[in-house]
Amino acid sequence: MIRFGPASSPPQVWAVEDTRLQLAWGNLPAGPVTARACEAEVVIDHRGGPGALDLDHLPADRAITVELLWDGGSTSLRTRTLPTPPGALLSRFATISDMHLGAVRWGALKTMRDTSGHPVPHPYRCAEAAIAEAVAWGAELLLIKGDTAQHESDRDFEELARLVDAFPDLPMMLIPGNHDVDGRSGTIPLTVGQRAVPFVRRVDHLDIAGARLVVADTTVPGRGWGTLARVCDGVVERAASADRPVFVAIHQQLQPTRLPRQWPIGIAAPASTDFLSRLDQLSRPVTVTSGHTHRNRSRTHGDVLVTEVGSTKDWPGVWAGYAVHEGGIRQVVRRIAAPAAISWTEYSRGALRGLWGMWSPGRLDERCISHAWVRDSSYASGQ
Does residue 118 sit in the same domain as residue 248? Predict the structure, then answer.
């Protein structure tokens, strides 16, 4: 097992929902770990090192103090649960991105390696744990937002096929990222696994209770940055024809400026801002989410909610869950809690001499959001 020193992440409220929160830490001693808030309490038998736990049955939209206790120590953490969006809960789905199946190293100079001795490579075990935890959370469908493979190679896509087939009962939609089309040593397949899940290469959509899910391929073969040139009109048309709120998933992030303010480069303005403005002019609520940056951020463009969600395979190691209500949507970004995954992702926090540990997570209110529809939602319960 990987050992951690003083640079380990402190105990913190990592994720909040309306009635639940997730606590996570980088290094606590083995033994019982107790969390309590309001009248809720949970105790786990912690094996030592990094870990996480859930505290449920909390009041919504309430400032609370969480007491976390372990052998030889304790801390108090203040947070606030999210408000529940208006109306009935209609559906739940999840997203993951940037799995980089086939990768063996991490960091700016690719010097960080998994020394745990685990028989399953860290990208695969993190992705598998993320999907399993999303299903346990209640996700009825999974959107995979690109960079599934480390390179466009047959070997890496075979890992993806194995992962997809490990969840035969979970509907999936799949788009490529720049690593999937980097032209290294193979060709991106039309479909993946015995389930034959297709890679969407232009635009596709699926209607679920309360939302239309629109996915689009923004990749440029052999390049890291993205483009909307092939898909912008198709996304807007599918959004405009929806009889319910719209959720758009792409790989590259939508930059608010022409010049990039962070690495990697995404989709530059004015193409990115024009695209969001067209979506904002529609009569229905729209949410847009991306991956690519391996970080967690959110903002709004007019009434459009725009989010970036981090990678499964490196710090902080996350997946996102979405709860669709008649009057809004909740996003929760949760750390992958499986011991075999969180041990690696905690270690990977040290990239860029520890700067990655501060840059990637984003604030709690950028990860976990309760977003009420600000437009007429009378169509939101469409089936």
Answer: yes
| Residue 354: predicted pLDDT | 86
Q: Is 59 exposed, middle or buried (0-12, 13-18, 19+ CB in 10 A)?
A: middle
User: Which CATH number goes with the domain that contains 298?
Assistant: 3.60.21.10
Number of residues in the chain:
383
DSSP 34: E
Number of separate domains in the chain: 2
What 3-state DSSP class applies to 59? coil
Long-range contacts of 237-242 (CB under 8 A, 24+ apart): 238/203, 238/205, 238/212, 238/214, 239/212, 239/214, 239/279, 239/282, 239/284, 239/286, 240/282, 242/205, 242/207, 242/212, 242/284
Query: Model-level pTM greater than 0.85?
Result: yes
Q: Would you call 241 exposed, middle or buried from its count of C-beta atoms within 10 A (0-12, 13-18, 19+)?
A: exposed
Confidence (pLDDT) at 353? 85
Helical (H) or strand (E) element with 124:
helix 122-137
Q: How far is CA 342 from CA 147, 180, 273, 285, 332, in A?
A: 20, 25, 36, 35, 18
Q: What residues pair up with 197 in beta bridges, in sequence order?
A: 192
**Low-confidence spans in the chain with pLDDT less than 50:** 1-6, 380-381, 383
Tell me, what's the pLDDT at 374? 83
CB 204 within 8 A of CB 215: yes
- Are 292 and 264 in contact by the 8 Å Cβ rule? The answer is yes
35 and 154 share one domain: no
Angstrom distances, CA of residue 112 to CA of 38, 107, 344, 349, 351: 41, 6, 10, 10, 8
The range of the structural domain enclosing residue 275 comes to 89-372
SS3 169: coil
> Same domain for 59 and 121?
no
DSSP letter at 226?
B
277 SS3 class: helix
Residues 325 and 267 in one domain: yes
Specify if 4 maps to a domain.
Answer: no
Q: How far is CA 265 from CA 123, 152, 194, 251, 297, in A?
A: 23, 19, 34, 12, 15
Q: Which of 58, 106, 97 is nearest to 80 (CA)?
A: 58
